[in-house]
Amino acid sequence: MKKANNKQIAQTNKLVTYDSFRSNDKILILSNLNKLNDWINNKSNFKEIEETGIFKALSEIIDKYNENQEKQVENNEFTEIIILLVKFLKNLSVKETETNEILRSLDYIHRLELILNNSYDSDLLNDSSTTIECLRKCAPYSVRKVGVGEYSEQTGQFQWMIEMKQLHFDEVFVGWRVWEAGIGFGKWVLENKQIFQGKEVLELGSGLGVAGFMAGLICKSVLMTDYTPKLVSALKDNLKTNSKIPEIKKACTVQALDWVNDKAPKPFHYDIVIGSEVIYDEKIVDHLANIIHQSLTPNGIFYSTAATVRRGIPEFIHSMKSRGYTVNCTEFPKRFMPDTKFDTHFFEIYRNKNK
User: Which residues pair with 304 in a beta bridge?
Assistant: First the structure.
């Protein structure tokens, strides 16, 4: 008899297994989904569901369903599975546990929105809508967690889990919460680690810190900056919370920075300057361009994203070009921010070689 390996033993001890959801056995998949729904109705320790590591496998089922719907491939058996699967997601998400953070981090909102676009089944539409509403819920002063790095099916956890205490709109306006734009930009940074490894980085408009913390996982150093005292205080608190991650503790620091009145923290020092959605007002883009210019080394690069609807983009481009910089503006890949309704510009800006 073959000796079971550690992976097989670990899965045997779990409520359900992720491999079972990748099988072609419809009865097994439906049985496991029923088991999960029964479990939710009778249990309160949701860590057991997290530890199954099933959420990547479940997302693959949704992806296959959406692909078939877009190709107009009818499969009643598959529809039966997806209805029960989304019912499970609804039953799980309404409990508002930390499992919702895993679902958000694996882009379930986007996948469920595609179901809304492709399906006509009333139960499926209602359950998808409810799940999306639960996953999008963002209460003032709540803690937002973002799974970063690889999702392990063996443990049901991400490589890193970054935590940020959110504020209230009345205190700091749009900076009160973690936005998908910052998460998406941080994902781009991590996917392009060859650019950032060993580099000293200045982040402008850090907000609550999600992109800067993600950069801190791979950079030599990241100075995270923002302007309002309450936001800077919250940023420092979030850094303290995330200092349990050794890479962030070693790399990240926080400082107040007013683009209008302050000079660059370290003139002409930084290899890279980054900022997500920092181009938004034509009245201050020249100050933004100036702080970027003051901060970069002669061979430094500024990377940024900005929704195409933002004010001040043409003026910002003009300000950078007038200071002797080449401005490359391209479309930011949608896969980094699948849930956004707007197209997004991606900026790569560097000094002209003859300047």
Answer: 275, 347
